């Protein structure tokens, strides 16, 4: 996916939100770059990955992007967000998981941890392949039907698919926004 395609695909989920966003499992930075461009000069992206080659690519991207704090690179494990020191006390406005959850056997665990770190106004953006069959590149497929179940398990509202596109690797991809589940309203019985 080209940088322009990544930006166009991600834009409906993020545009106008601004602030500080996490890019979890950022890889080589395709969506980190797109997210940074969408957020603009006032936005910040904290790109988290644990792979040394990915971290090198992200650092190179951060150095080319402009102000030194616009993209911050953090060595961390997406499956253990509670152990990522850089996240302690950080205020975030959203999080992106682009082509990450299909590598995890239990994506609800990551989404639950993430939801506990984010304020109520924050959104989680998920980009995944719309496929049912596993392969070596997508070992745990997360079609939108499964994302609905995983989101509910993590205490999030049903995903809102904001963009779709064909994939070079068969089938298609989707971009979905997950919001915190609405708080339960406890109603007492009216007295007569």
What does this structure look like?
There is one protein chain. This protein is an alpha/beta fold and 192 residues long. The chain has one domain (3-178): 3-Layer(aba) Sandwich (Rossmann fold). It has helices at residues 3-14, 30-39, 52-65, 107-117, 144-153, and strands at 20-24, 44-49, 71-75, 94-98, 123-130, 160-166, 172-178. Strands 3-2-1-4-5-7-6 form a seven-stranded mixed beta sheet, covered by helices on one side. Helix 3 (52-65) links the parallel strand 2 (44-49) and strand 3. The protein is globular, with a radius of gyration of 17 Å.
Helix content: 25-40%
CATH architecture: 3-Layer(aba) Sandwich
Give the amount of beta strand, in percent. Answer: 15-25%
Which CATH first-tier class would you pick?
A: Alpha Beta
Query: Could you tell me how far the N terminus lies from the C terminus, measured between alpha carbons in angstroms?
Result: 63 Å
CATH homologous superfamily descriptor: Vaccinia Virus protein VP39
Rounded average pLDDT: 89
What is the helix/strand order? HEHEHEEHEHEE
Looking across the biggest beta sheet, what order are the strands in?
Answer: 3-2-1-4-5-7-6
Tell me how many strands there are.
7
Per DSSP, the total helix count is 5
Main beta-sheet annotation: 7 strands, mixed
Brief descriptors of the model:
alpha/beta; disordered C terminus; Rossmann fold
Topology record:
Elements: H1 3-14, E1 20-24, H2 30-39, E2 44-49, H3 52-65, E3 71-75, E4 94-98, H4 107-117, E5 123-130, H5 144-153, E6 160-166, E7 172-178
Parallel strand pairs: 1-2, 1-4, 2-3, 4-5
Antiparallel strand pairs: 5-7, 6-7
């Amino acid at each position: 996916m080209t940088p322009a395609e990544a930006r166009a695909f991600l834009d409906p989920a993020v545009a106008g939100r601004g602030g500080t966003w996490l890019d979890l499992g950022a890889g080589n930075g395709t969506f980190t770059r797109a997210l940074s461009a969408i957020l603009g000069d006032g936005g910040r992206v904290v790109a988290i990955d644990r792979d040394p080659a990915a971290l090198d690519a992200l650092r190179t991207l951060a150095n080319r992007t402009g102000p030194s704090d616009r993209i911050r690179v953090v060595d961390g494990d997406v499956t253990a967000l509670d152990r990522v020191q850089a996240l302690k006390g950080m205020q975030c406005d959203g999080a992106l998981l682009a082509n990450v959850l299909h590598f995890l056997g239990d994506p609800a665990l990551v989404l639950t941890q993430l939801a506990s770190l984010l304020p109520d106004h924050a959104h989680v953006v998920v980009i995944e392949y719309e496929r049912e069959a596993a392969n070596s590149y997508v070992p745990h497929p997360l079609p939108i039907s499964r994302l609905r179940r995983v989101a509910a398990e993590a205490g999030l509202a049903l995903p809102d698919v904001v963009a779709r596109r064909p994939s070079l690797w068969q089938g298609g991809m989707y971009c979905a926004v997950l919001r915190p589940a609405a708080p339960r309203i406890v109603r007492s019985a009216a007295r007569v």
